[in-house]
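Design a sequence for this backbone.
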């Protein structure tokens, strides 16, 4: 298994390419009655694209149906899927807390209705979820094709102010929760790339308790999930420059918060939503996204969402969820899959990018909840970056941290209290 920083004697760039695995039969409900033969067929199809890893999503209520019950059979099923992936040459990232998938929430009954508790701050809940993460890590730690664990799929959305029933949390509590669960992953699997996967409220929503600094400092890589239905496609248009460069911008924004120059960046989710794109636009979008993302230093990998379309026999999904796959619900490769396969083949010969050009300043105050919206689609930083990119400057982002005195307009400092953290 290639290390995240392994040197490449050929001089080409060892970027990892993977796919988020959505089972063709039964979607994630297939964990209820796991069919390893069907899993093997799905994973072999993914491997045929030239992908080297998959990200898998065991459902939280099936692994931990009671706060003090972690099912050994459930853990064994996860390990079995990891082992099947090894037979077709795929490494695996295991997501621990599901959590939230394709608009559905999978929260165990001991956290809801009559047993409603805060998943981020209740001490007994945090202890229990850390125990699950540790047990899951221990069960898969011996697999030679394990890349690592991700704490869950966009679990931070449960704390967001726009969630219908948010779990209230502050910045310090969010940081403590993340660090606690990452420590549990490391205890269970000392070797591995363990990460937190926050959706973009952490980067763009001013009042969100999960912050860019947490994403960039906690865990072994900085993870981003880039979706053009975040306002980019709606505002600028499906075939716009902004859509083609959305993931590249997001990666450069994430790199600006990195505490270490060599910290890996992982585009862990990116997909082609037909709510924005016409089907004829999809191959262009796949190629453009891969090509522009490869121009980002420290890019560790690109993991596409997702492997297979959700079957139309399943009810109540948003329509776009039935169209996001690289393969259709019958296992046939789609135009998106062919484009991703070709992009992977082309990227194998890519060389590391040159240093980026002009840095676009992102001012942030002493309170990390302030000013993130300037970086969101339509914000001043986003607009300035896109204008510079369109002009050929290959811009990056630079975080400008202002002291309380500067934020308060203290003229005694003359702005000298601002400190800069280079990208």
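Sequence:
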């Amino acid at each position: 298994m290639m290390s995240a920083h392994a040197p490449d004697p050929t001089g080409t760039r060892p970027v990892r390419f993977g796919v988020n695995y959505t089972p063709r039969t039964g979607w994630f409900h297939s964990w209820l009655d796991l069919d390893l033969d069907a899993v093997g067929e799905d994973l072999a199809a993914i491997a045929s694209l030239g992908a080297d890893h998959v990200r898998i999503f065991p459902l939280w209520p099936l692994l931990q149906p009671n706060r003090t019950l972690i099912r050994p059979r459930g853990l064994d099923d996860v390990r079995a899927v990891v082992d099947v992936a090894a037979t077709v040459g795929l490494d695996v990232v295991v997501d621990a807390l599901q959590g939230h998938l394709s608009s559905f929430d999978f929260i165990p009954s001991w956290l809801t209705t009559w047993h409603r508790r805060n998943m981020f701050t209740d001490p007994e809940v945090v202890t229990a979820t850390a125990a699950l993460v540790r047990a899951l890590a221990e069960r898969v730690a011996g697999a030679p094709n394990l890349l690592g664990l991700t704490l869950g799929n966009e679990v931070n959305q449960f704390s967001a102010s726009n969630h219908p029933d948010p779990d209230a949390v502050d910045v310090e509590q969010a940081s403590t929760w993340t660090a606690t669960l990452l420590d549990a992953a490391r205890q269970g699997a000392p070797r591995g790339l363990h990460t937190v996967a926050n959706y973009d409220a952490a980067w763009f929503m001013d009042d969100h308790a999960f912050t860019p600094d947490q994403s960039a400092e906690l865990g072994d890589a900085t993870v981003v999930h880039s979706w053009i239905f975040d306002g980019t496609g709606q505002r600028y248009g499906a075939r716009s420059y902004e859509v083609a460069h959305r993931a590249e911008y997001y990666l450069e924004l994430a790199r600006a918060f990195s505490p270490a120059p060599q910290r890996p960046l992982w585009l862990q989710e990116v997909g082609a939503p037909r709510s924005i794109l016409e089907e004829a636009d999809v191959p262009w979008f796949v190629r453009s996204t891969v090509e522009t993302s490869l121009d980002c230093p420290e890019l560790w990998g690109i993991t596409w969402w997702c492997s297979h379309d959700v079957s139309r026999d399943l009810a109540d999904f948003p329509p776009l969820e039935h169209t996001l796959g690289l393969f259709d619900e019958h296992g046939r490769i789609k135009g998106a899959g062919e484009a991703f396969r070709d992009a992977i083949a082309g990227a194998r010969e890519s060389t590391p990018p040159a240093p980026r050009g002009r840095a676009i300043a992102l001012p942030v105050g002493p309170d990390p909840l302030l000013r993130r919206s300037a970086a969101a689609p339509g914000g001043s930083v986003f607009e300035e970056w896109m204008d510079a990119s369109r002009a050929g400057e290959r811009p990056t982002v630079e975080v400008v941290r202002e002291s309380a005195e500067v934020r308060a307009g203290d003229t005694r400092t003359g702005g000298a209290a601002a400190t800069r953290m280079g990208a």
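The chain has two domains: 16-347, 359-421.
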